[in-house]
Amino acid sequence: MTEFDKFIADEVAKYKGNSFPLKASLLERALVRKVSYKKLHPNPEDEFCIPSVGPSYRIINEYVQQMVEDKFDGMFSGLEDKSITVEKMYPDGYMILNGHHRWAAYMRVGKKKVPIHIVNLTNSHDIFQMLNNSKYDKRVTINLDEVMFKKPGSEDVEKELGFPFKKVYKEHLLKGLPAVCNHLANDGYDIWVYTTGLYSREYIQRLLKLYHINTSFIVTGATRFDTTDSKEKKQLSELFAKKYDVTIHIYGEALLYVKRSAKKSLQYELHKDSWSGDAIEILDGIHKRETAAI
Question: Where a domain ends, among 102, 118, 134?
Fold first, then answer.
């Protein structure tokens, strides 16, 4: 074990069992752009901290070389805009979500302050609270990464946001998505959106609102729930099952309808060029059948 390996192991042991994520205020997220590397702590769930996997000294050395070669008046300008994504944590500092190897490289070259980007990811408490605030027994789930976010310039994206919003939000929404979400909201569905991306919930909520999609059921950094305690996972699963009788999953080329009480599920095809029209037509059919069954 190298000295740095021991340092990582000690950091993980130091905070194991007595740390948890905190919500950073809007002011803190806006103003705190650089902190001492000593205020950053490795994420025990990241491969970087797993002895059998990481850290990769090859990657760390590549970053060190890049920093040294790019040195200008004592500043490593080439990496200044490559912020380390972090989450505020108790009892102190910030937990690294993305950028462990750059953090290690910054330490090696002696850079006292490193650029950071603070985000408020969704946690289990947030989901419990969202479920308690829900008013409906129907929901739709949409994966932001697979369905919503599209490359700029393509024909299947919504109209670009105006200035100054387009300077803040670089993501582009799939054409027709606002119309489908509006249709679902009018039919009494909770709209749940998921992303594995390291976004603050508030950021996604504001972005969607600019496209007239109003929802507070937002889960960011969704992969963190892969490592959630099994008891907590079971509680969440039972709460979702108790809360929602109908769930609609919208994928890239399909819509899946699940009615728990009837133990019924139906899958519908969505054509790429007319997916939103197809979805609304299918949803109208589902609504008519549900209404007739009452």
Answer: 118
